[in-house]
Give the backbone structure.
Amino acid sequence: MRIGIDARFLGPQGSGISRYIERLIAHLERIDHRHEYVVWLRSAARWRPTNPRWSVRIADVPWYSLAEQTRMPGIFRAAKLDLLHVPHFNVPLLYTGKMVVTIHDLILNEHPTERASTLEPLIFRLKHAAYQFTIRRAVDHASRIITVSRWSESQLHAAYPSTKQKTRVTYEAADPLPTPVDPSTLTTHGVKPPYLLYAGNTYPHKNLENLVEAIRIMRRTGETIQLVLVGKRDYFSERLEKLVRDTQVNNVVFFGYATDAELNSLYRHATAYVFPSLSEGFGLPGLEAMQAQTPVVAADASCLPEIYGPTAEYFNPKDPADMAARITTVIHDPKVRERLITAGAAKVQEYSWERMARETLSIYEEAKTA
């Protein structure tokens, strides 16, 4: 079988989707010596195969663009594929070949708010309508649909009941991160232990406004622990920074983008990792924190209880006072900390990128005959 993978999201400052693609192709390349693969990247520098049955083609076509819809169908057709895997909802609408699509989450369905966009309201509504049309086309056309948690699968089935018979779940995993940087180098960013850590974007559904309010509550009780927020600087982080200034919550550090080595060091030296998000597809950062033997305090919401089980301390994400209380417990109760650290290290071992790749390969073979 000749399989194509649209890996254009792969990049040096990649999102969770980038990590998913990177690990998928790395493990498929190692375990599958029967099928032929064509991988599309935006730059040749981003990945080079070692398996002779794999080839790379360059398609420097922006995601979510008109060019994606006009150029990519012909590019894929010219490769004469038996199956195409699009690892996100942004399928080329005019491509009619067999397809597997990965739907990581339905956050844009759950939180269709203009606060989550920098666009003018009219443009936002038009783009959201385009998203709705595209994802509907993706799930209708796909021979098989992959989700990365039972939670995402249930959301998909509720929104698109016709997907029930063709959806499969493949869990992600925590990567061994590179050797951590010397923690003293983090002080140049203002990081000073003890600190709480959050890593990710600052979109509204991440619920960081309530985390800031929880920290404000903790400050009133005399808790001075630092909060370190890691993620790219953009309109949403600037809006959060303004909230921190306006509410006079001190000792909050906006770290900006972190390399994997920096992130590993941040995980290892954090007092706790805090994950207040209202909606996630899988929740990989919490597993990465557990791998670094850092206790996790997480929202009792979406997929997080499914993925972490009893290895995290949970709070009501819409109640900053409960969030503050749970965080305070994890900071100061050594028995709770020890339990979470021990259980978290074991939980990480339950997930495997190789297993994910093998299950994905089985889905490819199933889709080919569907």
About this structure: The first helix runs from residue 16 to 31. The two ends are 14 Å apart (CA to CA). The mean pLDDT is 94.
